[in-house]
């Protein structure tokens, strides 16, 4: 029973150190990432607690996505060097392109369904007109 706090402390230390190492240097708050690693290693429990409250990146909360799911908010610099910004769906070229592709696919699917129905109707009509021809093939 007395080992539980020690095990908890070790697990917290390992988790905090790995979390610090895996975080992006640009996202780390307060002091530079290498300094946080030193603080965590030199002051194990206190360093980890400081990391969680003062240094750990504050990622934006997930935003509601399509179909009720959640989509993580964009963060960090983009390839152009500017921070990513939310774009309204009607201003997003990728969304509009995807919308157009979806519309075209639905239209093509409907066209193919109509052609298939026409073909079935023609085949049924031919079978009615020539019921004996099926045995010749």
Automatic annotation (TrEMBL):
Keyword Metal-binding on entry: no
Subcellular location field: Cell membrane
A Pfam family recorded for this sequence: PLDc_N
UniProt entry keywords in alphabetical sequence: Cell membrane, Coiled coil, Membrane, Transmembrane, Transmembrane helix
Residues in coiled coil: 102-129
Residue stretches making up the Cardiolipin synthase N-terminal domain: 11-56
Keyword Membrane in record: yes
Superkingdom of origin organism: Bacteria
Name assigned to this protein: Cardiolipin synthase N-terminal domain-containing protein
Organism for this UniProt entry: Arthrobacter livingstonensis
């Amino acid at each position: 029973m007395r080992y539980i706090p020690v095990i908890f402390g070790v697990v917290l230390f390992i988790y905090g150190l790995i979390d610090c190492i895996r975080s992006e240097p640009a996202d780390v708050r307060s002091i530079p990432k290498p300094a946080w690693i030193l603080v965590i290693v030199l002051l194990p429990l206190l360093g980890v607690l400081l990391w969680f409250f003062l240094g750990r990146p504050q990622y934006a909360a997930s935003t509601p996505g399509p179909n009720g799911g959640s989509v993580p908010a964009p963060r960090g610099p983009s390839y152009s060097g500017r921070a990513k910004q939310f774009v309204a769906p009607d201003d997003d070229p990728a969304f509009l392109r995807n919308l157009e592709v979806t519309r075209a696919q639905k239209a093509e699917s409907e066209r193919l369904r109509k052609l298939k129905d026409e073909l079935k109707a023609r085949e049924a009509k031919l079978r009615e007109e020539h019921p004996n021809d099926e045995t010749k093939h």
